[in-house]
Each structure stands twice: as C-alpha cells, then as structure tokens.
Amino acid sequence: MIEEHTPKDNLDDFIRRSFERYEEDPSPAFWDNLNDKLPNQPATGMALIHRFGWQIAAATVILILSSTLIAGYLHFTNKVNTLIAGQVELKEQLLNNKPIVSDQPSTPSLPRSNSRSPVQFHQNNPSYVIVDQREGIPPTLLIENQVNAISANSVNVEVSPDIKPQVEDAVAPLAYLPKWNILSSQFQPGTIVAKVMSPIQPVSKQGWYSGVHSTVSIMSEKLKKPGPDDNDNHHGPRRVVSSQSKLNHIVADYWVKAGKQIAPHLAFETGVGYQQFDRIAEHQPELKIRDGERVHGHGGPGGPSHGGHDEYDFNYTLNSYAGSMDINLRMSQVDTTAMYPDDQPLDLNLTTKEHVKTLRIPLLLATHTGKGRLKFAIKGGLIANVFLQNELEVTGISSGGNRFKRSDPDEPVAQKESTQRYGLDFVLAAGAEYRLNNKLSVLAEPTFSASLALQNNNLAPAPSYQTAGINIGLNYRF
C-alpha cells in the first residue's frame, strides 16, 4: 500500500514543482508599501553629519587651532618662568661670592672709586711711596687727587738718575664691563666666573595699531519653514512671507580697523566696514483668490464676469535680507469666462533681486601667541550691521496652470516698507600674522560668521545665513 501511494517522480522534481511559484525576494511594490506605513524616524547621526558637514568641519579646525595656540602659550610661559628663576638664582650666587683676589701681587692696579684700601705704585721700588686715597673723592676727580698727592710728597723723595721708569701692565676693571668680568690671569680656584647674560625683560604692553583689511566669503542661507496654517479659511491680517536665496553668494567686505593691546597676549579690536552685494531669491506667497480685492468685473469673488475680465489686487509683506517690503500685484484671469472658487490658489512664484549696502561695526577680542616675526591669533566677537540701502526688484513672476497673469507688466511691484534695519552677527577667526618690520605686519585668517538676530516672526521668519571665507590685511603699529 505504501508503494502505491509513493510518487513515482524523483524527490528533487517534486520539491522543485512545489516551490516554483515561491519568490525569495519580494517585489519593489512590497517595499514601497511597507515604507509608506512606517512612521517617520528621527535623523540618525550620519544624517546630521551630512546635513551639517561643513559647519562641523569648520568647528573642528577652529578647535584644533585653539588647542595648539593654548598649548604653545603654556609652553612659552613655562620657559620664560624657568629662565627668570635661573637669573634670580645666578644673581644670588654672585652677591654671596667671595671677593676676587688677584694672583699678581706685584702688578700695580688702579683703585676703584671711593675705595678705602691704599694704592701702591711700583711696590718693588723702595724709592716710591704709598699714597693713601682719601675718602669721599668723586670718581671724576680721582686721578687729579692722586697726582696732587704724589706731587705734595715728592719733596721727601730722592730719585736716582740711574733709575729709569718701568713700564708695567695695569690691571683694572673696565667701566663698561660687569663687575664679575675678570681677566683670565686673575682666576683663582673657588671663584665663580659667570657668563654675561642679557636679563629677560618682562613683556610690556603694546600700544595702538590700525590696519586695512578685506574679507571674501561665501554666504549660504537657511529658511525655517513655518508650520501649516490651521485657520486657513480665516481672513486674518496682512499676509507675511519670506524669500530664500537658491544660490550661495560671494560677498566682499572692506574694513578699517583699530586695536589696542590690553594685556601681553590679549587685544581689543573695532573699526568700521562696508559690504555690498546682489542677492537673488525666490518666494511663493501662496495666495488664493479670496486674498485679493476685485477691481474689475461683476459678481462676487469667483463669480462669472459680464462684459469684461476680472482683475484682483494682491498685497502682502515680504521679509527680505535687509528689511521688509510691501508687494503689490494686480493679476487678471487669462480665461475671462472661467469661474473659480474662493479658495482657488494662484500658484505664484516670484524671483527677486536685492541690491544691499551695509555698514558693519565689529567688536572683537583677539589673543596672540608666538615669538619672532610669526605670531598666531584667535579672534571672536560680534558684528553690528546697519543696512544703508536695500533696493528690491521683481525680475520674474510665473503662475501655475496659466490661469492668471499680470495686468500691467510695467507696473512697479515692490515698495520699501521699512527705511532702516539692524542685524547682529557672530564671527570667529583664527590665523597668522607676520611682522615685516617693527611697524608693519601682514595677516591672513580664515573666518566664519553666522547671523544671530534679523527678525523673529513666527509666521514668516527671515532667513538665517552663514558665511565662510578668508580675511587678509595690513597692520601698522604705533
């Protein structure tokens, strides 16, 4: 019975036919459906690195430079303290040293000023007398008094004509040498002969310095998207939108700076700078028909037109880089017979060009380290921005679906609403300075800055920006 029910085919063929419809790898549609059902996961560490890669790299470089400068400063300070301690110890040894005794007693020597010991001339010649030096004689009158003393006592001396003057070497300390400088013939065992060393002077505070600098950097922007409007059907106050630059701009700054050394390794810098550049940005006002005011046509909003096309005036505020702008748009329907509901979006996309002029005032603290001609510095502080001019021009307007168009393309669109605006930036720089001479020095330092405060508007926050570049300059020290 068992043999009758056993399949006659081979076991391999039986298994193959049983699983021939089985797919080991799921289809792509399966994974797409699964991904749609999964909840959004927070960004991983690698995603954060990809997102903030250049900011993390800049912070790492600045951290390495800061650590190097701090380590160099501590090493240099330790060396200076060691040398100063050695100088103090050497001075104490010299003060406690025994008087130096000459090993040539027969050699006459000139007396030191205000000395109490007698001076002997030609000690081996009995015909010469010993002249005692009087106390309290100024050094400038010493030789004159000695001559007078010899002349006064010469009456009691008989000089033989056969005796000729003897020329002998006089050993005396020179006025321009230190007291512990002695000749090699005067050296005796137990006498300390120290090498003349220049004393280490403490680092004195430097004075004022000024310079002209130029900074070239790349500016990138980031715009925080506002959350969804829960009261979309509510006719609230004037709409506020923000523009965002799609490109990284190259920005040039020109500075006249002045600094003051307030400590051996610390300085304060300020000055004035000028910045000018063109900013190209885009924005989508997300306007709907109900946001406009009908100026031509008949019927209610969205109703049919009778005997003419419908035109609408749209007004909103644009937050730009250097101020807010009042935007006025007059749009008309392309199809005059079409009827649109009140919540029909216009799908507008506007391209703007801003010409910005800014006055900048830096307030920086700088720390310097190094020796010789080359020194390293780290700077950090704030920059106050005063926007002098912000001319905005709408260079392009497009509408999705070709349902609306501008009534008059030559009509002005933007009108400045705020006359002046202030901003605040944080800046950090680290670089090197090379002294050409005692007065002039050149410097080069990479810089990084970020905006701290432009505008805080929850409906449409102004774009924040970061810059990374290099600053070069020439300094003059007074």
Describe the structure in your own words.
With 478 residues, the protein is α+β, with helices and mostly antiparallel strands. It folds into two domains: 104-200, no CATH class; 208-226 and 237-477, Porin. It has helices at residues 2-5, 11-18, 28-37, 45-51, 53-95, 142-153, and strands at residues 208-222, 240-242, 244-245, 249-263, 266-283, 293-296, 311-319, 324-333, 348-369, 374-399, 404-406, 414-416, 421-435, 440-453, 464-477. The strands form two sheets. The chain has an eight-stranded antiparallel beta barrel with strand order 1-4-5-9-10-13-14-15. Strand 7 and strand 8 (324-333) form a beta hairpin. The longest helix is centred in the first third of the chain and has 43 residues, at 53-95. The chain starts with a helix and ends with a strand.
CATH fold label of the largest domain: Porin
How many β-strand stretches?
15
- Helical coverage, percent range: 10-25%
Question: Total helix count?
Answer: 6
Q: What does the largest sheet look like?
A: 8 strands, antiparallel, barrel
**Major sheet: arrangement of strands:** 1-4-5-9-10-13-14-15
Cα gyration radius (Å): 46 Å
The CATH first-level class of the largest domain comes to Mainly Beta
Architecture per CATH nomenclature, i.e. the level-2 architecture of the largest domain? Beta Barrel
What is the N-to-C succession of helices and strands? HHHHHHEEEEEEEEEEEEEEE
Query: How many separate domains make up the residues?
Result: 2
Distance between the termini: 117 Å
**Structural class from helices and strands?**
alpha+beta
Shape: flat
Mean model confidence by pLDDT: 71
Note poorly predicted spans.
Answer: 100-104, 113-122, 128-134, 167-174, 179-184, 200-205, 227-236, 298-308, 455-460
